[in-house]
Amino acid sequence: MKYKNALYFLWKEISRFKKELFINFILIFSSIPLVAVTPFLIENLMQEITTINDGQGMKSALITALLILVIYSFTRFIWFLSDYQGDILKLLVKGSLREKLYLKVLKLPASYHKRKPSGELMARFTSDIDIVGEEALFFTSVFQAIAEFSVGCYVAFKLNTYLAIIFVCSLPVYLLCQKQFKPKMESMSLLEREANDNVVKSIEEGINSAIIIRLLEKTTYFYHLFQNKIRNWNNSMKNKSFYEKLYNSITMYIEEGLPIIILCIGAILSMRGLVDIPKLIAFFTFVGRLYVPVWNLAFLFTTTPAAFPSIDRIKTLLNQEEEKVRKGMPFPKEFTIDFHDVFFSYEGNNYILKNINLQISEGEKIAIVGSTGTGKSTLLLLLTELYKPQRGEILLNKLKLSQYDLSDLRRNIKYVESSPFIFNASIEENILLGEKVEKSTINKILEITQLTEFSESLNKNCLLLSSGQKQRVNLARTLLHPPKVLLLDEATSAMDSHTEELIFERLKEKEKDMAIILVSHRLSTITKADKIYFMANGTIVDSGSHIELYQKNESYRELFKKQYVKDAQNER
């Protein structure tokens, strides 16, 4: 059943490209008659050569030889086209699978990305898809082998029944070889894929953390860890390669050795008058081609199952439940958002947030403060519905968030993180992300985010900017279509206080009705809030203005002294 499901998946992916598949079939089957007629022409040539007694006989033999050469050349040309078309089909299947996986990954819920390392996903996109794509010719190759073998057997029996029977009796040797090697090659392939996944994960982690690793002075430590994973992969690859090469060598030995045995037996039969020399020579030149489809079938059914683990992993990813596209009510023009006894956990009953109660109104500026790990960022993400609370509810104008259109909700509640998504393109491309907007709109956004210095150089590569400038580009992208609720999660942490001050002034001036929720460890940031919620151990323990909290809450005062006073000194 496992093989059946894997082959069905493979066929579904291949059959998307009907035109290329049809061309491949035509090329494959057009060469079979040409191969089949060749041994009869060789037999005829041998007879003509052995009976040459005048110039006319020599001319006839030369014409036959020329015809054989033309057919052989044309057959080779068809094989070239077939191989080329086969490579095109492989590329199309790989590209299609990558497109499907890419779209799937973008649609997966945040909870999936939270528990799956990106290196594991990268392995699906690279090695697994390459392995599966290489099997794109499985079905055409099977049909080709069956057709070639059937036609070949017919030709063999037409040439000489005794020699054909000897050939058929040699086939169990192939089947025995295939039976012995198939299970071992499958298990070796699975171990190699697992070891390769670990290497890919380590590469991805190393690239993402290269600077931190150097700062920690742990380059040697991580290098040795990576070396161990490379060694494990090398060992598994050696084992896989050993069995593959051993299998190929044995089958090639059989393929090349059996025709010689048949030739020797044929010579004995010839001396007894059971086969003439022209037929024996024709059969000997053809029997090598007879073993090719047998070898191909044995090879396909031995090596193709090695791709099944990759197919399983791709299928598992494609079958993951996507975030549901939800239709519902539009986001209201005037709004109030209420958290009522909200509890949230990423896993099990280990709640990150506990008994959260707060209210956000239109145009209000709120700050959420607390020590690291108290759930501040998670609280913001709940508003975007990337995650949903296990207990309690979040209400928008006294209705559950789930009653509102999800796309419209996210257009109006936007989250801006501290480490922005910046890709290798210009400032303008990073802001617009393919959208067409008026120049006046861009200028307005540049003014709010203090990026007017780049108004005449928007084609500058965004990767060349400083961290603070990248944060401003990220904010500009968010404000291209201003939300009604802006969630700033340390989104200005890399900017200087003066720039941050100007941005907030412009936001108040241009977007008066926008509600802003801030998470920050910077004094200059939180004092801009109308109200501050103080969190500890995943719950809101107090709220009020900065002065009120400082006066009445000792824990807040201690946190302020540890974090915010130091920040204020750094700003000076």
TrEMBL record:
Signal peptide: none annotated. Keywords: ATP-binding, Cell membrane, Membrane, Nucleotide-binding, Transmembrane, Transmembrane helix, Transport. CDD domains: ABC_6TM_exporters, ABCC_MRP_Like. It comes from the Bacteria. One of its GO terms (molecular function) is ABC-type oligopeptide transporter activity. The chain crosses the membrane at residues 21-42, 62-81, 163-181, 246-269, 281-308. Residues 337-562 form the ABC transporter domain. It is found in: Cell membrane. Residues 22-306 form the ABC transmembrane type-1 domain. GO terms for cellular component: plasma membrane. It is a multi-pass membrane protein. This is ABC transporter.
